Sequence to fold (290 residues):
Amino acid sequence: MTHSSPKVQAFFDEATNTITYLVQDPHGRAAAVIDTVLDFDYASGRTDTRSADAIIAATITQGLDLQWILETHVHADHLSAAPYIQERLGGKIGIGDRITVVQDTFGKVFNEGTRFARDGSQFDRLFAHGDSLMIGQLRCEVLHTPGHTPACLTYVLGDAAFVGDTLFMPDFGTARCDFPGGSAAVMYESVQKILALPDATRIFVGHDYKAPGRDSFAWESTVKEQKSANVHIGAGRSREAFVALREARDATLAMPRLIIPSLQINMRAGHMPEPEENGTSYLKVPLNGL
Fold:
C-alpha cells in the first residue's frame, strides 16, 4: 500500500452530526467524496441540496476530478446525496457488497415489492474485504468492518482511514450495534482490524456529538489515540467487557430521528422510491416495525 498522505477536507452537517469528506490524491486532481448528505425536513417531506452543493462548489473551485462517491454503509440517520452529486460531477457510487443483506432485511421491513432489486444493482460498484480502487495514483484499500450494520466498510487511503460509524472520537467511543444485522461481538473484531493499522494512521469518523466536557466538534484522531484512549474499546478492553458495555448502552438508545426515510432511500443508493401514478414519490412508515 502506498504511504501517500491524501488531502482531506471535512464538511460538517450540524443537523445530523455527519461529516462528509472530500479526499484528494496528493499527486493530482483526482478525488473522492465519502458519505454525502441530502438535507431533509421530515415535517414537510422536503429535501434540500445545500450540503451537497457545498461539496460540488469545492470540487469545481479546486479543479478536482471526482472519480468516486463512496458510502461506508447504509446510513440510518441521514439521506445520501450520491445520485445528485453524480449527476453534476460524475464519478461511480460504491458501497460494500453486503448491501444485499441490508436490502433484503429492510426490503421486508418496508414491504417493498418486486420492483425493488435486492442485488445491489443501484450502485456502480460493490466492494468486498480486500478489494482496492484507485483515486488517481492513490490506492484505496477496503476493509469489511461490520457490527454497526452487516455492510459497513472502512476505506484506507494512504495514511488515512475513513471508518464510517464503526468508531467515533476516542472520548465518545463506538457506534451502536442494535440495528437489524448488528452485533457488538462482530463490532469488536472489526475494530481490531482498524487498530491493526499503523499507529500514525489518521482516523476520520462519520459522526461527532461532542463528548461531555468537549466544547467543539471533532472528527480526526489516530490509531494510536484510539488504541490508548477510546472509552469503549481502548486500553485493551476485552471482547466480553466491550460486548456487555455496548449492549447495555444500546438498550437505552432511541431510534435515530431520520431512520425511516434514511433506510428507504439509502438502500436505493440515494434514489427516491419509484413515483406513483401521480408522479410523486412516497415513503412508508411501518407501524411498530422497528
The radius of gyration is 18 Å. The CA atoms of residues 107 and 113 lie 8 Å apart. The chain is about 25% helix and 20% strand. The longest helix spans residues 50-61.
